[in-house]
Amino acid sequence: MPVRVTADDVARAAGVSRAMVSRAFTAGASVSAGKREHVLRVAQTLGYRPNLIARGLTGQRTGLVAVVAGEISRPYEAWLLEHLVRALTLHGYRPLLLPALRNTNVAEMIDHALAYQVDGAIVAAGSVSRDIADRCRSSGAPLVLIGRVLEKSGADSVCCNNGEGMRLLVERLVKQGRRRIAWLGGSADTFSDQERRQSVEQTLKHYALSIQAQRRGDFSFQSGFNEGLAIMDSGEAIDAIMCANDAMALGVIEALSQRGVLVPDDVAITGFDDVPGAAWGRCPLTTVRNPVNETALEALQLLEARMQAPSSNPQVVRVGVTLVPRESA
C-alpha cells in the first residue's frame, strides 16, 4: 500500500521548512515567486496534495463548498446541479456533493459537511430548519438556500418567482377558454409547491374560477403518469391539467395518450421549469422557464457576499421567469 506523502516530506526534499511548504500552497502568503515555484515543483514530483481539512482547522479557507442536492435522477435537480457545480468550479471552489435522497436527514448531512470545514453550504433540496441555519452560522459557514425562503433564519436564499410563473400559465389557459382546470401538485412540504398552488388558486379566483380536481405526486415522471391516469379515471370533465413541475407534466401527457385523450385538443397540459426534455416528445410542453444558470450564479454571489460580510442582513433574491408556449397548451 503506497505511503501518503506529507508536507514534511516535501520540506525535506525541497530543503525548506515545513512552514515554507504551507506558505507556498497558501494564496497571498509572503513567499517569493521563485521559492513558491520550487516548492510546488518538488511537491508535484512527489505527488503531494495539501490536506484541506487540516487547513480548515487552522482557520484558513479550504475552498470546499457543500452542495446538498435533490434526487438527481429527476430532470430539474440534475440540470440545476450541473450549473451549480460549473459555477462553483469556475470560481475556484471545490463542490462537496451530498445527495439528499428520499427520507434523508438534511440536518445530519449539514453536520457531516461542517466536519469537513467547508467554507459554506448551498442547499438545493430537503427541509431546512432554523436549527440547521443556526448551526451553520455558529460554525462560521454561510448557508444559502435554493428554491426556498426560510424567514428569520439568517440564511440567504435564491428562488424563482413561482407566483408570477403560475399566473402566466393560468391566464394563458383562461384566454384559450379553459374553465375546468385540475391541479397536480408535488410534495406537500416543499416551498415551491406551496407558492405555485397558492398562485393558481388566487389567479383562478380572479376569473371567478376554482380548481376542479386535484391530485398530488412527488415531482417524478412516474407520479405524473399515475396521477394523470387517476384524474382521467375520476370521471371529472377536465379541460386542462396544471402540474407543479415539468417531469410530472410529461408523465401526464404520456398517461393521457394511453387513454386516447388528445393534448391539447381535449385537455391542455402545463408544467414548470422548462427542463431540456420539455421541448421534446410526442407533445412539446407549455411551461415556465426557471433560469437555472442565473439561479446558480446568484447563489454563488450570495455565498461570497456572506463570506465577506458575515453579520450583514440576510438577502432573498427572486429570479425572473418566462412563459414558454408550446403545443401542449
Automatic annotation (TrEMBL):
KW DNA-binding (keyword) present: yes
Database matches in PROSITE patterns: HTH_LACI_2
Gene3D superfamilies: 3.40.50.2300, lambda repressor-like DNA-binding domains (1.10.260.40)
Any one GO molecular function term: transcription cis-regulatory region binding
Database matches in SUPFAM superfamilies: lambda repressor-like DNA-binding domains, Periplasmic binding protein-like I
InterPro entries, sorted: HTH_LacI, LacI/GalR-like_sensor, Lambda_DNA-bd_dom_sf, Peripla_BP_I
Keywords: DNA-binding, Transcription, Transcription regulation
Name of this chain's protein: HTH lacI-type domain-containing protein
Record organism: marine sediment metagenome
